[in-house]
Write a structure and sequence with these properties.
The protein is mostly helical and 206 residues long. The protein contains seven helices and no strands. The chain is 79% helix and 0% strand.
């Protein structure tokens, strides 16, 4: 009987998740490099528009003095949750790598825009804005991508009939653990951002 043709886009984790994790970390790095290169191509007019937007944001932030918990939760969970849910779909084989690339691109592009518009202060501002979030979101995203991709690949290969395509293989448990970790990150950001980020932002843009 002829075996189905199997083309794997990413290495299967055998005896551990390290090879696949490093592969997704490499994809994330490619996204970061692409975001940095494209961020450098932003025109002076767009930089001025970004600076005007940041000033408007600073004024709004100064009036509220605290971030919206809903916005913080959304910014923390949207990426990891999308990666987890992609493990339920055949298209997750291609969608998961694209999501990882997109996350790296988005982060680098945002940081680069801050840096180009505000100079060294913009780099410090980006660290204050994204530093805590990155410490929690990036590891969780890469880990969930590593656990979800084999499940999506099993579905693509038709292994559902053999019981190998279930998301339980990659694990709902990692999403629960990452969800708790991300929640801790949200609490830390909500506690720290009003104390350090908003005053720093107002000082730079004043």
């Amino acid at each position: 009987m002829r075996k189905p043709h199997r083309v794997l886009l990413l290495p299967r984790p055998s005896g551990g998740i390290q090879p696949a994790y490093l592969t997704f970390a490499g994809l994330y790095l490619i996204g970061v490099i692409a975001g940095h290169l494209i961020g450098n191509s932003v025109t002076d007019l767009q930089h001025q528009e970004l600076l005007a937007y940041l000033r408007s944001y600073a004024q709004s932030a100064a009036s509220t003095h605290h971030p919206s918990p809903v916005q913080v939760l959304f910014s923390y969970y949207r990426g990891p949750l999308a990666l987890f849910l992609a493990g339920f779909a055949i298209c997750g084989v291609w969608l998961i790598p694209l999501l990882v690339l997109g996350q790296g691109f988005s982060l680098a592009f945002s940081v680069n825009c801050f840096a180009v518009s505000l100079g060294r202060s913009g780099v410090m501002l980006a660290i204050a804005a994204f530093g805590v979030r990155c410490l929690f979101v990036i590891p969780c995203s890469l880990y969930l991508a590593t656990k979800s991709w084999p499940s999506a690949n099993h579905l693509r290969l038709g292994d559902r009939t053999k019981g190998k395509g279930k998301v339980s293989d990659s694990g709902i448990f990692p999403m629960i653990v990452c969800g708790i970790v991300l929640l801790i990150g949200c609490i830390i950001e909500i506690s720290l951002v009003p104390r350090y980020f908003y005053p720093f932002l107002s000082k730079i843009l004043s």
